[in-house]
Specification:
It contains eleven helices and twelve strands.
Length: 352
């Protein structure tokens, strides 16, 4: 630790992203990237953007992109905020909308960036335990708070909360913001975006990294009441007025407009997930119901760390969370292509 660090930096425990190893012939099933490439229209848009216009700053408000996102969701541009990946959007959300006197609430097993943001912005929080089936129980959140946030589907469990339960929460929790992090919603869960016009305290965040195969471009967005969106813009313009470059905006616009390709690849992932769950169940795994592009599974007899290490020896990487203890025997496995999942199952047959 340096004597030049601020008191805040001394106390931070940074987020640790999923491993990005440099291994040849790797089957990478650890960071929930889409196994299929982006829309061909995205690649054309990126090639077109590689011109002398790169000497100019990008549109600071990303107006064309916001309009494309609004059109997709049947909203107005004033309902849309965009940022450099949904992580930046979430960071601004914590600072702008969840930084109050009362503690915010989120699940005890969830996206591990949430407590990091709380540390960065010195926000008090309370974790709410998932039930024995790793489900979010809305009744546990019906108490005074400075805001509520959780992913739907939840990560890393993959379990989804019904839209009716989200609406029940919104009907009761009217004095603070409710943030639904829908990074994985397109793979089988119900989106809460349709509730935005009815509930002014609702903010829904999305990423183009998963269902639209653009993890390399770093584009995320939030949709909500214009009042909430204005708060995010105030933070953004006090931090970085140009978070999305010309390539990111051009590629994201093309991705949002190619609805057919988006739906096709989502259906492919869902189909492969269904088959993979059956295969793993036949091998003695307990698999939680998933509405995401990954599954959360534990073997009834074999240790998770041993399985993870054995797969790594065969150049297959999955995610093993050693903490908290409740999930220490689970593996989070990204749904890859049919061929990648077949290779995974083949190796698992030898290991278990």
């Amino acid at each position: 630790m340096s004597q030049y660090w601020s008191h805040l930096i001394h106390g931070l425990t940074p987020y640790v992203p999923g491993e990005q190893p440099k291994i040849n012939n790797l089957i990478k099933l650890n960071t929930n990237e889409n196994p299929y490439g982006p829309s061909p229209k995205v690649l054309i848009a990126l090639q077109k953007e590689a011109s002398e216009s790169l000497r100019l700053y990008p549109d600071p408000n990303s107006d064309v992109l916001r309009k494309a996102i609004a059109s997709f969701h049947d909203l107005e541009s004033s309902n849309v905020f965009v940022g450099n990946g949904s992580d930046e959007v979430l960071a601004h959300t914590f600072n702008a909308l969840l930084n109050h006197d009362k503690p915010i609430l989120f699940p005890d097993i969830t996206y591990s960036f949430y407590p990091v943001y709380c540390g960065l912005y010195e926000i008090a929080f309370e974790t709410i335990p998932l039930n024995d089936s790793f489900e979010i129980q809305v009744d546990d959140y019906l108490k005074p708070n400075g805001g509520i946030i959780f992913p739907n589907p939840n990560a890393p469990t993959g379990r989804s909360l019904a839209l009716s339960e989200i609406e029940r929460l919104l009907k009761t929790n009217t004095s603070s913001v409710v943030v639904i992090d829908e990074a994985y919603v397109d793979f089988g869960a119900e989106s809460a975006v349709g509730l935005i016009k009815k509930y002014p305290q609702l903010l829904v965040t999305h990423t183009l990294s998963k269902a639209r195969s653009l993890a390399g471009l770093r584009v995320g967005y939030a949709v909500g009441n214009p009042d909430l969106i204005e708060a995010l813009h105030r933070v953004k313009d006090s931090f970085n007025s140009y978070p999305l470059d010309r390539f990111a905006q051009a590629g994201a616009i093309a991705a949002m407009e190619d609805k057919a390709y988006f739906e096709e690849t989502c259906h492919k992932v869902i189909s492969t997930r269904t088959h993979l769950v059956k295969e793993l169940t036949d091998l003695g795994f307990e698999v939680l119901p998933s509405g995401a592009n990954f599954i959360f599974a534990k073997h009834t007899k074999k240790d998770a760390e041993v399985i993870s290490a054995g797969l790594r020896d065969k150049n297959i990487i999955v995610r093993h969370f050693k903490k908290p203890e409740r999930i220490a025997q689970f593996l989070r496995i990204t749904v890859g292509t049919n061929a990648e999942c077949a290779a995974l199952v083949s190796e698992l047959k030898q290991l278990v």
